[in-house]
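Pair request: fold both.
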Amino acid sequence: MKGIKHLARHLDISIGTVSRALNGKPDVNPDTRKRVLEAADELGYVANQSGRALRQGRTGVIGFMMQTGSEITGQGDIFFMSVFDGVQTVFARHKLDLVALLCSSDEDPHDYLRRMVSRGFADGVIISATRRHDPRIEFLAKRKIPFVTLGRSLTEAGQSWLDLDFEGMAEASIDRLVSHGHRRIAVTRPQDDMNLGYVFVDRCREAMARHGLSLADECVFRSTPSEAGGYQIARDLLALKERPTAIVLVNESIAIGLYRGLQEAGVMPGRDIAVIGRHSPNSNFLSPRLTSFRLSLHDLGEALAEALLATMPDYISLYPHGTTRKMWPMELVAGESDAFTLP
């Protein structure tokens, strides 16, 4: 592939239109943009353009891809801000800069990543919110772009990853609740195809089966990872004919909404229903105090950065870790939200 002129001739459209399509300009017809991106991929244009920049290692920029929107981040994304701080702590040692790649919740993550890579401005990429089957992984591996994922996926390309220990959280939560006499337990999961939802729910089912119990389908609540998502879970839970006596929240943002929805209906966490969740700074203001799993997001960010640098030729000698695949532990900190025991 010689360049944009070759691509324009192949498609029989102008060089200007091809350029605007590749750079995501809004004045390009969606069908035309799709044709251009597909042809660029087929003919190797993207691979050549990005590969040169990434192999030269001259940009000094690392991209961290995340999705945005109030339905995803709620009123603020403390999780990623803390992770970014840890990532940049490591990158600053090497005069590298972290740039957040903000994919709108309305856009397909794979299409967004393809567009960003086509610009060839980053030496490596960290991707988050991994899906059960995630084409971004194959895309980056095919183009030999250094990358690491925050989260696992069934899509396998030999990539490095770090993921929160959702299996450990599931087992510890179910064991704790069963020991307090709970038999009908609810759990939450993301509403989309994020892999963590499958991992968490599957392990909850296994943990309950060990106690001779089952996780009812109607007790698995999907929601956006936001305060509004937690509020909706409370409404849906209260509408069940047979209400669960306990619930485990997989996302750190939904506890506030859940508390409000329950309390508006006169149902008190820690008295009428046991709640276990994930810690966030905002959860410190909940009453009763939330029994939660916590971790150092800064340390997680540092580990992500080091795992990525270990895949980049210029830094392998400094970070001779090889492929990193690590479950990041979370610590259970007891509060009052699940303090009661059923008879």
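--- second member of the pair ---
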Amino acid sequence: MDVQQRLGDVLSRIRASERAAKRAEGVVTLVAVSKTFDAEAIRPVIAAGQRVFGENRVQEAQGKWPELKRETPNVELHLIGPLQSNKAADAVALFDVIETIDREKIARVVAAEMERQGRKPRLYVQVNTGLEPQKAGIAPEATVAFIDLCRLELGLDVEGLMCIPPLDENPGPHFALLAKLAAKCGLTKISMGMSGDFETAIAFGASSVRVGSAIFGAR
């Protein structure tokens, strides 16, 4: 199966999951995760019609996406990996969506860069649903207050929430928690689910799923 067939398979599974969850067809966006793959590997996926992609590292994305975006201007690029403050200017310049706002320092730096550059990438707050010390993300119990800070003090229009559940746990409760927090914050966008669990995420209300290896193959 080539990369375009794998993309078609993932899209079919997304549509089937929408139907199974009694959700409207097309309500879930596929973010094709192209981290570690070069432009030559990404072009066939763009040629097959995919327009939304995710990258983990700002520096890696800078090496391939400016050219790819020139070739296909309507491509939408998401940052789905941790953002360091020294990369905030580059991230605001390159990405259309930043999914990993996870602490006050980053929120302030991103707000300042958006003002300076006159550019407004859409923003998600990452929630550390498993309270894993090695993982980025705001604690679930601090999420509502953090969203308020972003909105009211920093003037950031947060669009949604994102999470990465612990690898060794059932993802369902984590997806349910994120959906509950999103509703509490009045947010309709929920980024959750990866290659191994995106169908479960759709059942719990994901608006976008981040799928890499099921499309591009093993890294």
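Observation on the second member. The radius of gyration is 17 Å.
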